[in-house]
Write a structure and sequence with these properties.
Layout: E1 3-8, H1 19-34, E2 38-43, H2 50-59, E3 62-68, H3 76-88, E4 118-124, H4 129-133, H5 143-147, H6 149-158, E5 161-162, E6 166-168, H7 177-192
Parallel strand pairs: 1-2, 1-3, 3-4, 4-5, 4-6
């Protein structure tokens, strides 16, 4: 893993200014550069060119997504980015949906051209940890990866493999910014140090 694409999906909207996600994005950049990895960046809310984003994805070994959890998922700008960029990447990121005319009921999702690449989700949530891990709490012990299942499948469709996700919890009611930053740095070091 030599080149990493950092995709910041923070959005200034309502009471959120995107500062925590921006800070975590910057922690990732500093940490990865300290490991002598090349870092490419995209800040979705600042605008982007879909063709250039496809090229960044092709040039990168790992894509790291940073975004807040809004209404149980990613902000709309992240979904819009995925729709526009992944679709623009047809014949580069994926060849087809993987099925053949001989048996169109089999092999759906196997046409990705991005095998060997990896991705990671780093997300921030107002929900406390217990909401994700305890039965009977809001997410019924589903965990962050089941909540983001649709995003995992979008990346699997392209042929990518997941690295462990990172989550910051209780960011509004019980913020612990220094802990989040240290935990994220350690998460990245564990994933990327050889």
């Amino acid at each position: 893993m030599k080149k990493i694409l950092l995709i910041n999906g923070a959005k200034a909207f309502g009471h959120s200014q995107g500062k925590l996600n921006e800070s975590l994005h910057n922690i990732a950049k500093q940490t990865l550069e300290s490991l002598n990895l090349d870092v490419l960046e995209t800040h979705i809310d600042q605008g982007y060119d879909a063709n250039k984003e496809v090229q960044k994805m092709l040039d990168s070994d790992v894509w790291i997504w940073q975004f807040p959890g809004w209404w149980m998922g990613e902000p709309w700008i992240v979904k819009k980015y995925i729709d526009e960029v992944f679709s623009q990447g047809h014949d580069k990121l994926y060849a087809s949906d993987g099925r053949s005319q001989k048996d169109p009921s089999k092999k759906y999702g196997s046409g990705g051209l991005s095998q060997g690449k990896k991705y990671m989700f780093s997300t921030t949530w107002n929900a406390p940890t217990q909401a994700f891990i305890e039965q009977g709490e809001f997410f019924d012990a589903k965990g962050i990866d089941e909540i983001l299942y649709h995003l995992h499948k979008a990346h699997h469709f392209l042929g990518l493999e997941a690295l462990p996700s990172f989550i910051c919890n209780d960011v509004m009611k019980n913020p612990q910014f220094e802990k989040y930053k240290l935990d994220y740095k350690n998460h990245l070091l564990k994933a990327f140090q050889s």
